[in-house]
Amino acid sequence: MHGSEGKDALHSTPEEDPRPKLLPRVLGSLAIVGLMVGLMIGRLTTQDPVELQQVEPATDGVVLWFNSEPKLHGEHVDGTVALLFDAQGKAGSGQLQVNEKHVNWHVRKTDGGLLLSLVAARPLRGEWLGEKVEGRWRLEIHLQEQ
C-alpha cells in the first residue's frame, strides 16, 4: 500500500495557492458601496414630514396652516366635527364663535397623527376645503349649526 506522501508531486490534492483571494474583498466592497449609494438616494427622495404650523379662528370656523398637504379623514360624530390629520404638530385648544355661539376646538396627538375636535352646545355640521397658498397648505373648516 502506498502512503499519501508527496513523492514527485504526483498526487490528486492540489497545493495551496499562495496568492491572496481577492474575490470576497471585491464583493464586500461592492456591497458596501451599493448600500451607501442606496442610503444617499433614499435620503434625497424622502419628503419632509407634514407639520401643523398654525391654527387661526375665522368668522364661521377655523383655518389650519400646514407646510404641505396632509392626509385627512373627517367625520361628524354625535354633533361634533372630528378631523384626523396624518401630520405632526403641537397640541392646543381654543374657542371661537359661530353665529354668536361658542365653539371649542382641541388639537391633540394620537397614534394616527393629529386629531382636531370641534364641539359646541348644539350639534355642528362642518365642511372643509384645502388649497395651496404661497407654498403652504391652508385648510378652511366652515361650521354651522344643525
Can you characterise this structure?
The chain has 146 residues and is of the alpha+beta class. The chain folds into two domains: 11-45, no CATH class; 52-145, Immunoglobulin-like (Sandwich), CATH 2.60.40.3500. The protein is built from one helix and nine strands. It starts with 22 loop residues before the first helix and ends with a strand. The longest helix is centred in the first third of the chain and has 23 residues, at 23-45. Helix content is 16%, strand content 48%. A hairpin with a 2-residue loop joins strand 5 and strand 6. It has a five-stranded antiparallel sheet with strand order 3-4-7-6-5, with no helix packed on it. It has a four-stranded antiparallel sheet with strand order 1-2-9-8, with no helix packed on it.
Radius of gyration: 33 Å
**What is the CATH domain class of the largest domain?**
Mainly Beta
Please work out how many helical segments DSSP would assign.
1
Order of helices and strands: HEEEEEEEEE
Query: On the 0-100 scale, what is the average pLDDT?
Result: 87
Strand content: over 45%
Q: How are the strands ordered across the major sheet? A: 3-4-7-6-5
Oligomer: single chain
Overall strand count? 9
At the fold tier of CATH, the topology name of the largest domain is Immunoglobulin-like
Count of spatially separate domains: 2
Give the N-to-C terminal Cα separation: 106 Å
Task: Report the uncertain regions.
Answer: none
Structural class label: alpha+beta
Main beta sheet:
5 strands, antiparallel
Helix content: 10-25%
The CATH architecture of the largest domain: Sandwich
> What does the overall shape look like?
rod-shaped
